[in-house]
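INFO  loader      accepted 1 record
INFO  loader      residues=113
INFO  predictor   begin
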Amino acid sequence: ERPELEQRKTQLLAEQDNLKIQLAELEDQLLRELASSEGNILENKSLIESLNQTKAQSVNIGQALAHSQQVQADLDRERQVYAPIAQIGSSLYFLISQLSAVNHMYQFSLPSF
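INFO  predictor   done
INFO  writer      dumping tokens
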């Protein structure tokens, strides 16, 4: 019953999606640059600089994704603390709702009183 956990999880999922999109864009950019390069690839300084920048950004995005997955796992563990309580609550609800099958006296509603 902590809504901030759900909000944080939603934010993490949005950040992960954005990071994955950035990674895909970097891959596309890299492929475009490689396809448009002329001559010897090893002698093209701008292409090598672009490859190094892409690699650095890719490493940063990978680290951010790993960190966000770790935080997401921590949030899931915090959320699972409430699972047994929810299970007991749902069991009680269905137990009380089925009591009327045992005896009509166990109908819990205002008109029955």
